[in-house]
Amino acid sequence: MAPRISPPSKVMASILRCKRPLKIRRQYATAAATAITPAASQAQMTRGEAPIARYPPSQPPSYKPPEFRKSQLLRQYASLLRSTPLMLLFQHNNLKSNEWSAIRRELSLALRKVDEARVAAGFPAEQLEEGVKIQIIQTGIFSAALKVVEFYKPETSPSTLDPTDPSTPSSATIPVFKSDGSHLTHTLSKAAHDATAKRSHALAPLLSGPLAVLTFPTVSPLHLKAALSILSPSPPQFPAPTRRANPGWHEPSVQSGMQKLLLLGARVEGKVFDVEGTKWVGGIDGGLEGLRGQLVAMLQNVGAGVTNTLESAAKSLYFTVEGRRIMLEDEEKGPSEEKS
Amino acid sequence: MISRFITEVSTVFNPFSPKAKTARLFLSFLPPNARQTMKITTKLLPRTSKDPSFVELKFSKSPLFFSTVLHEEGSNTALVEDGMQMKLDAEKLGVKGVIEEVDRHSRMLSRQEELTGN
């Protein structure tokens, strides 16, 4: 039977020869008279920093093993936090699955109603209802992701030059890829971990116990108002839907689930709000359009006032001069009339 | 935690204080059907508030038991107004301490129930 291990090829043989002591190689060289290029040193061969990434661009080295669930959760939460400007935090006390599904159903119905009302009022369709999501979070990983998003702002964006790509200019400086990944700046990188390990966020005391977050893709006070009136109604500002308008909300599963949800706070555009602050955001009349309208009206009033003030001096001068002219004309007329 | 004998729970806490964790965790320890069997009120303090958080409990009545509880709980850190009410300082006790207090009282009530043959 033929041996399974094939004899070492020429290239392999030359590599093996290189590792031998210099003395022996010189003997070989003189004996066989073959030219052997001086090989790189052992350190260069094992730990050299090649300008070629040793990892696929979609899987850079991470501080914690990327195959762990918590690593992927951290990435997921960080991307959630970066993409949501408006987020409400709820404590959920032993909700059953049917209560969760009932609450989600009511929430999406109410938000869809707001969307339709906006379209009917002439605003462009946004379909915010599909982006609003309530989900249970793992508090420890969520706080880590929050710190990475808030406190870790890497200056250098990762280079996208690929030395193996033919379109890359030969004069371009190719970033050096270190094998330990110390130059990387992504969410799971060691740099992100080191920058945020000792910090603490204002939202940190809230992140304990059973927690769920309601995330909105944009800051929309109208949608927030609808969501608050479903999830934690407080009569004067956020009235619960009436039994006639929304009989589904008065079902026992929704009611018992709603009682067990407890609004704790909110994060609006990176700022932390308590319950009162959340209600204030939800209570902005007419949503962002209303706020813009108020601002425009205020600025217009200011402008009108300024033009009035500036005009008034010219007007008064005009009236004075005009009055004087009429007076002089009268004086001229007066004697002439007397003469004739 | 034995929550069978609790009839009323009222908690006050500021969620932005780290010490509110006890009260919040206590609420999460109540069973899913707690709202049907007991009356639960939660008051959230504003963010800047420094008021202490506490858990106030009422237990179902057991008239025979009145004097014993008063005697036993009187030496404890927990403030017991009468046999049926408990006001626990959530900041000092921690959630384990709160549950221990509740269980101690509930065990006595359940023993009482067994002895009276209900």
Automatic annotation (TrEMBL), chain A:
Gene3D superfamilies: 3.30.70.1730. It comes from Lachnellula cervina. GO terms for cellular component: ribosome. This is 54S ribosomal protein L11, mitochondrial. SUPFAM superfamilies: Ribosomal protein L10-like. Belongs to the universal ribosomal protein uL10 family. Keywords: Ribonucleoprotein, Ribosomal protein.
TrEMBL record, chain B:
It comes from the Eukaryota. Its main location: mitochondrion. One of its GO terms (cellular component) is mitochondrial large ribosomal subunit. Keywords: Mitochondrion, Ribonucleoprotein, Ribosomal protein. GO terms for molecular function: structural constituent of ribosome. Pfam families: MRP_L53. It is found in: Mitochondrion. PANTHER family: 54S RIBOSOMAL PROTEIN L44, MITOCHONDRIAL, LARGE RIBOSOMAL SUBUNIT PROTEIN ML53. Belongs to the mitochondrion-specific ribosomal protein mL53 family. This is Large ribosomal subunit protein mL53. It comes from Lachnellula cervina. The gene is MRPL44.
